[in-house]
Amino acid sequence: MTMKPKLTYLLIALLITFWIVFIGWGMVRTAIKLTQERKTSFIEVKPKPAETKKEEKVSTPKPQQTKETTKELPSELSRAETEPKLTLVRTYKVKPIDFQDVLPVMGTVKGKTEIKLKFEITGTIKTIYFREGQKIKKGDLIAELDPKDAQLKLDYARSKLEAAEAAYRSLEKKLEVHQKLYEAGAIIKSKLEEVELEIKSAESQVETARSEMKLAENELKKTSIYAYKDGVMGPRKAEEAEFVTPQDEIGSLFEIDEVYVDVGVVERDINKIKLGQKAKIFVDAYPNTTFEGFIDKIYPVIEGKSRTLTAKIKVPNTRGLLLPGMFSRAEILIIELKSAFMVPAVALIQSAPGVNLMPVIPKESLRKTEDETQTGTVELRQVDLGYLTSDYAQILKGVSSDDLVVTETQGELKDRIRVKIVAIEEPSF
């Protein structure tokens, strides 16, 4: 029992001793290595006299080379220190151009007129002669009701007129006879006057029967609907054998020799549109065709949740390509300028109310460096403005053709500062 604890303690002591010896030996080796390195460095720094002379003889440059190097290095350093660092800018070249400002809008094609087709009398539809979208000519038959009832009324009115006319002719003969008898003294005057009254009554009956017949004829005509004008048919809203009244619509006729494009103009652009402004119309059905028109009407009310104003663009449509209901895109010509100086509006600097400055690099100040980059001198000029858009401004006074206008800079711009031009944008309208 006493041997086991002793062995355990002995093993632990041996293990501790081993680690102490191992760590100590590592420290000794490290110290020896550091000492050797110090000796080596000392020997390299302090070579033998003969070796030092030899090395100096080989490595020492000639007196002429040393003198040239001494001259070149200070001049390069002084040039790098004295040369100023130029501000980098992007520019826009000023050129006279023809400029157009257009307002893009969207709308729907509508006919010049839209005639709702309805029968003026009640009845049952016998035949409908049109198809939806069909082009028709003035006078073409569009639809008709069953004419039986109207024909019966006409026949009755005709027979009534014939009877009234026969009674009138009979009374005319009776009047002739009574006039002769009265002249002969065979009858008294009151008898003649009675016949005259009868003939007047018969004459009134004839006129009444004639009017009734005209009404019957007119009602028979109302059983048919004819095209009032050349146009195109809209959707059918009734079918054959359907009973209709004068309030029921059977279809629509659109006049399309001229059409209107109803466009919505947002509130911020209302002041840009005027009557008579030209417009270009585009529809998906004819992607390579441009239709031209002009603003014919402007509604005085802003409608809908979109807060838009409706303007009607009148467009000639002699070929009948534009059909009611087509979705369209339009470009309203706001202004057209000839040979104008248009520059990006971002170049403007408003120094005071009504005073606008612009960083201009005159063409006379442009220079090219050895590496083919351009430099120039900025002048902060006061300019007079003409027409303004959200992107461009017309300069009436203050710039010349081929001048450069600074649109973007990487540093602060001051008057008469020299800058380096990294990009020149050309007008591309």
Describe this structure in words.
With 429 residues, the protein is of the alpha+beta class. It has four domains: 3-46; 87-98 and 339-425, Beta Barrel (conserved putative lor/sdh protein from methanococcus maripaludis s2 fold); 119-233, Helix Hairpins (Orthogonal Bundle), CATH 1.10.287; 254-337, Beta Barrel (Elongation Factor Tu (Ef-tu), domain 3), CATH 2.40.30.170. The chain is 34% helix and 38% strand. The protein has five helices and 21 strands. The strands form two sheets. A six-stranded antiparallel beta barrel has the order 2-9-12-11-10-13. Helix 4 (148-184) runs antiparallel to helix 5. The chain is elongated, with a radius of gyration of 54 Å.
Write the topology of this structure:
Elements: H1 3-45, H2 49-59, H3 63-82, E1 87-93, E2 96-118, E3 123-128, E4 135-136, E5 141-145, H4 148-184, H5 189-221, E6 224-226, E7 231-233, E8 243-244, E9 249-266, E10 278-283, E11 291-303, E12 308-316, E13 327-344, E14 349-352, E15 355-361, E16 367-368, E17 374-377, E18 379-388, E19 392-397, E20 404-409, E21 418-425
Parallel strand pairs: 1-21
Antiparallel strand pairs: 1-20, 2-9, 2-13, 3-5, 3-8, 4-7, 5-6, 7-9, 9-12, 10-11, 10-13, 11-12, 13-19, 14-15, 15-18, 15-20, 16-17, 17-21, 18-19
The largest pleated sheet is described as: 6 strands, antiparallel, barrel
Rg, Cα atoms, Å: 54 Å
* Parts with pLDDT < 50 across at least 5 consecutive residues: 39-82
**How many runs of DSSP E, i.e. beta strands?**
21
Number of helices: 5
Strand order, largest beta sheet:
2-9-12-11-10-13
The structural domain count equals 4
